[in-house]
Amino acid sequence: MVYEQTDHGRPPTQLYIGGAWHDSEDGIEVRDLTDGTTFATVAAARHGQAKSAVESAVGAQRQMRESTIPERAEWLSAIAEGIADRTAALSETIVREAGKPIPSARSEVDSAAERFRRAVEEARNVEGSYREGTTAGHEGWKALVRPEPVGTVLCISPYNYPLATAALQVAPALAAGNSVVLKPASNTPVSAAMLAEVVDEVGLPDGAVNLVTGRGSEVGDALAGDERIDAIAMTGSSGAGKHIARESEMVELHMELGGNAPLVVFPDADLDEAAAAAAKGSLKYAGQRCSAVSRVLAHDSVHDELADRIDAAMGEWNRGDLFEESTDIGPLIDADHADWVEQLVDDASERGAEVVRGGDRDGTWFEPTVLADVPREADIVTDEQFGPVCPVIPVEDETEAIEVANSGDLALDASVFTSDYDRAMTMADRIDAGAVRINGAPSHGLADIPYGGNEDSGIGREGLGVTIESFLTTKTIVL
């Protein structure tokens, strides 16, 4: 039996390799963030099992490469429906293992299903071309140029969007005809196991999708360093991304990593809209998002008023039972991360920042926090916080705003609030970021618009269409 029954009646907790479920001699306890108990104990793969997963994926490459677009479309549609059919169970799982309020968890499940549905249409756009030679000596040559899957893709998903991010990697990999090894975060592996269960029921070729749960330092290194892996798709921290890049050496890398998004506000902006965007951008999923608003750079003339309005906007966010529809914000992923957020807030306060709201914690719960007059030398200005904290930093003009926005090594997202079109476009051009949104908080939506980062915030761009392209190579057949 695949299920390990606990007090909550848990879903799969085994490894999924070569189309079958496997136990392991070791296990990882997954903490239930709603009550602090053990949510599930999942198998922790050994080195040999990680290698077996790669071997199974490689063995499925030929069948996947020879699959037709209609076959892939049928698989993707069935996976989407399988996810939708498990909305209630998947939502509960995400609440417990990731600590998201139930509305947010349900939205993530819907997003994951939608990504597989949209991958169907993107798969139908995968087509080759026919070309004729035009240079001297090549007249009359004819060639077929056709896309082919790269082979085996290692998908490494993060804890903050355990199902949606896995879908954003696995769906385009399958759409392109690749086989997959999925390695979820050790904090949040259960929703990925449920995705593997859906795949098992759909009936893909054995080994087309493999799930390897385990500790990243052991399993991740074994997988990334395997020379049979042809491409790696990863979402997570920049430090982990650099480590995986070193382990993987010459494979195709596709990474969306950390962020420290600035939200720049000028005097001619709609301050209510800017404050609402700053509050939501800082507090959604307790700030544990790469695209979260991590810094507000406010013009001196509106700094105080904006900080007050952000404070008021945060007052509308509710803490409570994560299964209550009215709850807006939950805990941080673990105590170590709460320690980090607390350290950044304390550092800013000690350097002269004013704590307008919050600043305290209760275990892994960190209060929604607004800091005003944050000095540029505070660590929170340049370090990724991943917490429900909105530091407001005064800036004199566009030049200083750009200097502060571009400080640090992360350059994923940014936003600018102004009613001046020329200023907006100038700022968007000069801020170092993969994406800049005008008069709105950064958002990746359903990933139909390419996104990704510069500097230490990633390699390449994500989004179903561009991700499929990155999982394809080209073969030319000259006739």
Automatic annotation (TrEMBL):
Alphabetical list of PROSITE patterns matching this protein: ALDEHYDE_DEHYDR_CYS, ALDEHYDE_DEHYDR_GLU
InterPro entries, sorted: Ald_DH/histidinol_DH, Ald_DH_C, Ald_DH_CS_CYS, Ald_DH_CS_GLU, Ald_DH_N, Aldehyde_DH_dom, ALDH-related_metabolic_enz
Active site: 256
Keyword list, A-Z: Oxidoreductase
Gene3D superfamilies from the UniProt entry: Aldehyde Dehydrogenase, Chain A, domain 1 (3.40.605.10), Aldehyde Dehydrogenase, Chain A, domain 2 (3.40.309.10)
Highest taxon above the source species: Archaea
Span of domain Aldehyde dehydrogenase: 23-477
Pfam hit, one: Aldedh
Family statement: Belongs to the aldehyde dehydrogenase family.
Protein name: Aldehyde dehydrogenase family protein
The organism's taxonomic lineage, starting at the top: Archaea, Methanobacteriati, Methanobacteriota, Stenosarchaea group, Halobacteria
